[in-house]
Design brief:
29% strand; 182 residues; alpha+beta; 9 strands; two-stranded antiparallel sheet
Length: 182
């Protein structure tokens, strides 16, 4: 028997959010997932986060994005206060390019393998202007989580925009149903 998602779950509308609550009829279990985000005005970032934001913006200016036109910059703050930057590097063979977050995290891991990252800021620019905040793609989220596992500690993720910045205390909140080691 094939199971249809619409038959298994009820759509529930609360305010402007839509959630699906699975019925117990098919022995499905409801899983509660906690998300931890803070949203604040980018202009109100504390000094240390502002420096990371500025580094990400500067890095975005060095992106190679001839196909999407979206220049993305990332800056990783290391525990010793150092900052490692990266920008997206596109390629006509799409999967061969790399996102800014992975460029920055891989560079940090290669150059400073014994110094854990404590925060990562990401910003997107189009035609030289910072855009609305963006969230990392799934591959970058998985790499962020692997980085946290590698060093045994969480890393704050700052998704920065021209007006607002969304901050997560860990990448696990960006990828709650992640791949795990078996």
């Amino acid at each position: 028997m094939s199971l249809n998602f619409k038959n298994l779950c009820k759509k529930r509308r609360k305010s402007k959010k839509i959630s699906y609550i699975c019925r117990q009829k098919y022995n499905m279990q409801i899983v509660n997932i906690k998300l931890d985000f803070v949203k604040l005005k980018t202009a109100d970032l504390p000094e240390c986060d502002r420096a990371l934001y500025d580094a990400a913006v500067n890095s975005a200016r060095h992106a190679y994005a001839p196909y999407s036109g979206l220049s993305v910059g990332a800056a990783v703050l290391l525990r010793d206060g150092g900052i490692v930057c990266g920008s997206n590097q596109e390629n006509v063979a799409y999967p061969s390019g790399l996102c800014a977050e992975r460029v920055a995290l891989f560079a940090a891991g290669a150059l400073y393998p014994d110094i854990p990252p404590v925060a990562l800021a990401v910003v997107a620019m189009k035609e030289g202007e910072v855009q609305k905040f963006v969230s990392p793609c799934g591959a970058c989220r998985q790499v962020m989580l692997e980085t946290e596992n590698r060093y045994g500690q969480s890393m704050r993720i700052l998704m920065c925009g021209a007006d607002d910045t969304v901050i997560s205390s860990s990448s696990i909140y960006l990828l709650p149903l992640c791949f795990e080691y078996i």
